[in-house]
Amino acid sequence: MAILAAVDGDEEPDRAVTVGEDLAAAYDDELVVVHVLSQEEFERRDEVRRGERYTVEDGQHDAEATARTVVKASTDRPGPVVTRGRVGDVVEELLSEAERVDAKYLVVGGRKRTPVGKALFGSTTQSVLLSSDVPVVAVMDE
């Protein structure tokens, strides 16, 4: 089993990584950190490359590089961390990755938003909470 921590595209320290690390240590499980490049961002990057295709493999590589950067910015504790990059619908990819790694917990970040903000813009965290078959730990920004 593994602890799966999802990080967004901000290449800054992320509490989901440190909480995931704590859970992995407590349960003696592997920590897997994943970043999903959304389909919209993937298509935008493909359009920016004039004449050269931006492949799914390119997107996965870039997403994994983002996950690695976030891990380095988030912790300096020793211990193995596996990083993964995915491309597609963020919620679907997170849930699929949780299944692939047989996640004991899925750790996601959240932002404090007003009810109106949630209704207007949707919430990846909320969708994951409602759709996940594994326990979800939502880590709110301070």
Automatic annotation (TrEMBL):
It holds the Pfam family Usp. It comes from the Archaea. Residues 3-139 form the UspA domain. It comes from Halopelagius fulvigenes. This is Universal stress protein. Belongs to the universal stress protein A family. PANTHER family: STRESS RESPONSE PROTEIN NHAX, UNIVERSAL STRESS PROTEIN UP12. Transmembrane segments: none annotated.
